[in-house]
Amino acid sequence: MSEESGPVTSPEYWFNTQTHEVEVGRRSSWSHLMGPYGTREEALHALDRARERSDAWDHDDAEWVAGDGPGEAEGRAADRQPS
Asked: Where is this region: Disordered (predicted)?
């Protein structure tokens, strides 16, 4: 018996943004794929997850522009500390 075969790997799942279908293994052009994901379920919700992240980043950006972003309060408090 030969030991030449590599380790058994789990399949990778990809979300195709053109067809809105999950693919097992990379079968389509990279320009239409999101992933890889470890499960079909994760791949199926790729757009939802991307939308949530984008919305959170937009919110953080708006706070930063307004001067209320993460770390801003700490920075202002440090400016008031006597030297």
From this structure: 50-83
